[in-house]
Amino acid sequence: MIESAEAASITIVRVIAAPVAAVFEAWTDPACLQQWLAPNPCSVAEASADVRLGGRYRVVAVDPLGNRHVTTGEYRELVRDVRLVKTWVYEGPNYADPYPTLLTVDFREVGPASTEISLRQDQLLAPEDRAGNREGWRLCFEKLEALLRPTV
């Protein structure tokens, strides 16, 4: 059975209580990425990002059993505080054949300190990949919200 391109994608829309500039920085600054870009109970052991067109990034997450989950890719489009497009290649214990997907993240101010993130991940080949990524992004967004939550 051949699935449509739309079926090979997931889209997640989330509002974060933080200004657009802070949310965009959380997606591009390695120190910030290290604090949120791994779904619980995983943690990020290392993160690097050469944030420019054609630049590469690498994020290494570690799960409680010590397994490494590595994500790498290349920046394809960068519009500060508006859009980020990059390839996304995941390598980990559950994936024998890593393949590239395309991640598009749009940022939109919806209030003075509120940002809507629209994330679309394309080229997810298998239904279990779509389900796993949807849940992984949900958990990552929880960490991102906690990181950017204003302190009282």
Describe it.
- There is one protein chain.
- With about 150 residues, the protein is α+β, with helices and mostly antiparallel strands.
- It has a single domain, classed as START domain (Alpha-D-Glucose-1,6-Bisphosphate, Chain A, domain 4), CATH 3.30.530.
- The chain has three helices and seven strands.
- Strands 1-7-6-5-4-3-2 form a seven-stranded antiparallel β-sheet.
- The longest helix has 22 residues, at about 125-150.
- The N and C termini lie far apart (about 55 Å).
- About 25% of the residues are buried.
- The model has no long low-confidence stretch (mean pLDDT about 95).
Looking at this protein, list some descriptive labels.
152 residues; alpha+beta; Alpha-D-Glucose-1,6-Bisphosphate, Chain A, domain 4; 41% strand
What overall form do the CA principal axes indicate?
globular
Determine the fraction of residues in helical runs and give it as a percent range.
25-40%
- Structural class comes to alpha+beta
Overall number of domains: 1
Strand content: 35-45%
Q: Please state how the strands of the largest beta sheet are arranged side by side.
A: 1-7-6-5-4-3-2
User: Average pLDDT value?
Assistant: 93
Q: Class in CATH?
A: Alpha Beta
Order of helices and strands: EHHEEEEEEH
Which architecture name does CATH use?
A: 2-Layer Sandwich
User: Span from first to last CA?
Assistant: 53 Å
Q: Assembly state here?
A: single chain
Whole-number radius of gyration? 15 Å
Biggest sheet character: 7 strands, antiparallel
- Tell me the number of strands: 7
The total of helices stands at 3
According to CATH, the fold-level topology is: Alpha-D-Glucose-1,6-Bisphosphate, Chain A, domain 4
Low-pLDDT ranges: none
Q: What's the name of the CATH homologous superfamily? A: START domain
